[in-house]
Amino acid sequence: MTPDRHHRGTQGRCVVSVLVADDHPRVRAGVGDILAAAGGLCVVGAACDGEEAFALATALEPDVIVMDLSMPVVDGVEATRRITRACPRTRVIVLTALHDLDRIAQARAAGAVDCLYKDQPPETIVAAVRSAAEAA
Fold it and tell me: Measured between alpha carbons, how far is 81 from 27 in angstroms, rounded to an integer?
């Protein structure tokens, strides 16, 4: 991650900006809380569908997006495709409840750098976000 992508200093302050995209408010809030509690991660926005995720991604240019696969209006695969084209420095991590290997492969082909299942422990999500940001 280049210095201009850092958003604040260190010592628990926001270093990696994250956008959370999920159509379920509780999931958005829960993932947001997990990330906000982790040192150095800052949730800068939340989207309820892929169209809103794209709009926020282009406006905010977050370091990482945690993206649900199944959302209304524009699904996570198409949103990932649009975002990775428009914001090449933003990394997308798919977070899904679906164990659908075809959809996960589609998301990876669209530009997702990682795929996590919603039943994985919070520290796995945090580690994936940090890893994706470092790879940017």
Answer: 22
Q: What dotted CATH number matches 3-131? A: 3.40.50.2300
Q: In whole angstroms, what is the distance from residue 52 CA to residue 59 CA?
A: 10
Calculate the alpha carbon distances from 21 to 45, 55, 57, 95, 114 in Å: 8, 11, 10, 9, 15
Question: CB within 8 A of 37, min separation 6: which ones?
Answer: none
Nearest to 47 by CA among 132, 36, 62: 62
What's the pTM? 0.90
Sign of CA dihedral 7, 13, 15, 16: negative
Which DSSP string corresponds to 37-71?
HSTTEEEEEEESSHHHHHHHHHHH--SEEEE-SS-
- pLDDT band at residue 11 under the 50/70/90 scheme: very low
